[in-house]
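Supplementary Methods, section 5.1.

A reviewer requested that the exact input to the structure prediction be made available. We therefore reproduce it here, unchanged from the version used in the analyses.
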Amino acid sequence: MAETVQQLLREHLDNPAPAVKFGDRVWTWREHLDEASRQASALIALADPGRPLHVGTLLGNTPEMLTAMAAAGLGGYVLCGVNDTRRGEALARDIVKADCQILLTDDTHRGLLDGLSLPGVRVLDLSSQEWSQLLAGAPELTPHREVNATDTFMLIFTSGTSGEPKAVRVAHMMVPFAGVALVQRFEITAADVCYLSMPLFHSNALGAGWAVALNAGAAMAPAAFSAAGLRDDWRHYGVIYLNYVGKPLAYVL
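The structure derived from this sequence is encoded token-by-token as follows.
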């Protein structure tokens, strides 16, 4: 059994089964992880070796966020899930607090950074020509490190209900450990589709959504939660499993 995200992802490198479904597009595991490997290689080459390799993500529930998560797993560096509902100085504080030397964003979220002071942070827009060129020049992936089970995979911020949000370490072993338990409990298989509509920077989406798909080799359908669109999405993607936290199903039922 895999003990790290890195090991778990490597099991799917040559998997021709569907991995990501978004709109009418489908990526196989092989295609998805090839993109993730190129991203990891590009970021490792760009990073300052004298600093901790922390890569932040200011992204929504999109294939790009899934690629960033897989890239961090394969590349052996730490991903910092930035809460995209934060604004202004609070958002800047989270990014700096997580010691991100690189921040990945897109044209949807790039404007949130306007006017913010982010010393030591290289902002990369995944929809930009600059990013396309970095990917095109990326060599074959040599991981930043071969990780151990207790090494940090992600930094995830608390909700901040009792003060400023704090960055919490999520170890590599959490993903295979949490995922396999839910796969067995709900009998999820590689033929199933997991609907990921809870924020992917949140621990629930990581441990009860993404981890399930990785352990089962099931397809993932990332989406922003919408009570009005949920049932249509379920039918469109053929959803078998979804995770939730709080009251989202109350809005549907």
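The chain has one domain: 5-252. These observations are discussed further in the main text.
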